[in-house]
Amino acid sequence: MLAPTTEQAKPTLRPGRKRLVRRVLQADPGQEYLVYVPATISEKPPLFVSVHGMSRNADQHARLLAGYCDIYGAILVAPIFTAEEHPDFQRLGRVGRGKRADIALNLIVAEVSAMTPASGERFYLFGFSGGAQFAHRYLMANPHRVAAAVVAGAGWYTFPDATRRFPFGTRISNKLPDVRFDAEEFLSVPVTVMVGTKDSTKSGFRRSARLDGDQGVTRIARARNWVSAMKASAEAHHLESRVSFQKISNGTHSFKQSILAAGLGEKVFCALFGPPPVAPNHE
Amino acid sequence: MDDGDIDGIYTTAVRVGSSPDARRLASAAWAFTTRRVPRAQPLQIGRQASPPRAGDLVLARVDALGFHRGLQLRNGRRKNLFPGDEIVVAYGNRYASNQFEAVVPKTPGPCHLVAGGGVAAKALSWHARIGNGPSLITPIGYVLRPDGKRVNLCDHGLRRVDQSVAPGPTTIAVVGTAMDAGKTTSAAFLVRGLTLAGLRVGYGKITGTGAGGDTWLLKDAGADPVLDFTDAGFVSTYLVSLADLEQILVTLVVHLAEAGVDAIILEVADGMLQAETAALLESPVFKTMVGGVFFAAGDAMGAVAGVNWLKQRGIPIAGLGGLLTASPLQQVEASAATGIATFSRDDLGQAQVARGILAKVQKLRIINGGIDARTDDGTSQTDIAARA
Predict the structure, then answer these.
(1) At what angle do helices A101-115 and A130-141 cross, to 10 degrees?
(2) Does B122 lie at the interface with A, CB-CB under 8 angstroms?
(3) Which of B110, B125, B138 is closest, CB to CB, to A180?
(4) When comparing pLDDT for A279 and A258, which is higher?
(5) Interface contact B128, partner A, CB < 8 A
(6) E strand or H helix at A107, and its extent?
(7) Residue whose C-alpha is closest to residue B189's, from B253, B265, B260
(8) Which residues of B touch A236 (CB under 8 A)?
(9) Which of A74, B166, B251, B343 satisfies CB 3.0 to 4.6 Å to B321 for a cystine?
(10) What is the average pLDDT across B59-74?
């Protein structure tokens, strides 16, 4: 839900100030985010949201992806979900586990769309690792807000199974009392699932006998199984599947390594916006 | 085999032929909403991807139980549901402030059972007390006629009537503040009182979602015939156009009148802030067909707001009642604030009281020059009430 924008303070972020800005959310001073406006943007530039993982490296996300936003003319937003405020952000922030991360993102997007020409109605969403967990759960809960998404290196997934409670499935949970999952809607969002070919360790993410049995024992297996489940669910709903799977050659579970050495950035922006208008530049 | 009570055991089997599809359909539990679909035709199962429409019948599998753990069958029995059960229900929209808001899904994919009478839909929101959410079902296929077209309830309603020209029996509509305000109970006890007064009373539920509970209660109270919007070919009335609502009203009233009843009690679901209910009550057709309303309120303040709403629209009020009458203090508050007499369900169940309410509406109709001021044979409705 969009928060009402305040009339008293309307700062603007204009193109030309080619810099990364760290801002405090007016509606919640405890919430910070990074925003980057490229030097050249269209009248209605797309809004690109990049969500960090458990290392909370939002600054790294913004710095490493800002160049791609220059190429595509997209305004970048990187929310900062701190461990204190958002200990459960990757599962949207269930009752008793900090603030709701999905609501925080909605407020951030509303504020940025009020300060820039970008429309906050639908935006492009990317998440890596824990951020990928957040991204796919956010789009399943808020499909009308997401134009397209890339989910990269998630440790585990919420499956499109309405018989199992969230976060394992999409059955409602009293831990997220106002969230409803509408399969017809979230299955219609274009989603690309990415995982590095070297991201094959069996540790560093949530493991249990049940999760391993249901989803697999590596991030690669879990990504494939989630994609298969989303395709099967689309088929059950007589919908064309909008989910695809892409392996990132030489990609590891390091965001920085994946961007700098495995071409993750190009692949993410290409998946979201199509081929670049000019050749990607790593400067 | 037929629906009904055989040696004391209710069955739900239907005559649908001997093909594998027919046998599968015959072994499924057919919901209350499907009760007007003829059972002696060789039906098929169509696994089509095209979008469902309100009223389409669908064979579905129960995947997981939520709020609705039972299904009202064609014969009225409530069947307990188990995961894996196969049921035949109708696609439809639902507006129920104490349960679900639901719409016909865009695809024939997995969806929800949103009414115990057998309605398949996509639940959009629900009351906070429904912690488990809706029961989950997966459609197996549409129920098809022998000619391959989908079975839809709109093809199995009563003869449609667009206009009523003949004077009809005095008609009282029970309306209320919201769902569960006591409308159906008020209607049932009013029917009971009029029946005890020697009148033959027909009942029609104009709006709502297909479910048997209300109609069975009204039958038990003595109404005959008992009809609802499903008899007019609609599984529910949420998101139905005003023209269709008016046609439901006219169709049911005319069919009840043709059955030779002395008085008609109608019920309009939900509260007056609900879009379809408001549109219907403001319709000139409603004002022509209905002599007055009995208003059921959940509390005294709701009664005041509702009475004002009705008065602003020139709709005559025959009495107040509903849930508020469970509290003597609220009853006093409501009467004092509105100047309108309140009636508990026990009051309404008394012949003299019910007859008095009917007579009041008849008087209002005569004053307003309505079509039910006089009966076909020229005798006034007041005369009928007096005879009773």
Answers:
(1) 80
(2) yes
(3) B125
(4) A258
(5) yes
(6) helix A101-115
(7) B265
(8) 109-110, 138
(9) B343
(10) 96
B52 touches chain A (CB under 8 A): no
With contact defined as beta carbons under 8 Å apart, do B211 and B115 qualify? yes
Confidence of residue B12 (pLDDT cuts 50, 70, 90): very low
Could you say which residues from 64 to 103 on chain B have a Cβ atom under 8 Å away from some Cβ of chain A?
64
Residue for token pair 């700062």: A11
Structure tokens at A203: 């540790």
Beta strand B29-30 with B86-91: parallel, antiparallel or unpaired? parallel
Global ipTM: 0.77
| Total residues belonging to chain A | 283
> What predicted TM-score, i.e. pTM, was given to this entire model?
0.83
Phi and psi torsions of A43, nearest 5°: -65, -35
**Cβ-Cβ contacts under 8 Å for A190 (sequence gap 6 or more):** A147, A148, A149, A242, A243
- In the block, which residue shows the tokens 């991807």? B49
Q: How many CA within 13 A on the CB side of residue B164?
A: 28
Cα-based angle A85, A107, A101 (whole degrees, multiple of 5): 35
Neighboring chain A residues of B106 at a CB cutoff of 8 Å: 184
User: Phi and psi of B255, rounded to 5°?
Assistant: -65, -40
Residue B196 clears pLDDT 70, i.e. is over it: yes
Task: Name the pLDDT band for A174 (thresholds 50, 70, 90).
Answer: confident
pLDDT over 50 (residue B372):
no
Q: Which of A174, A180, A236 sits opposite B110 (nearest CB)?
A: A236
Helix (H, G, I), strand (E, B) or coil at A27: coil
The token duo for B35 is 């009760």
The answer to whether the CB atoms of B122 and A182 lie below 8 A apart is: yes
Residue pair A270/A278 in contact by the 8 Å Cβ criterion: no
* CA atoms A15, A17, A21, A25: torsion sign: negative
AA letter at A56: R
Tell me what pLDDT residue B384 has: 33
- d(Cα A146, Cα B342) in Å, to the nearest integer? 53
CB contact under 8 A, B123 and A184: no
Work out the pLDDT band at B364, boundaries 50, 70, 90.
confident
Q: What are phi and psi of B350, to 5 degrees?
A: -90, 135
d(CA A155, CA A247): 15
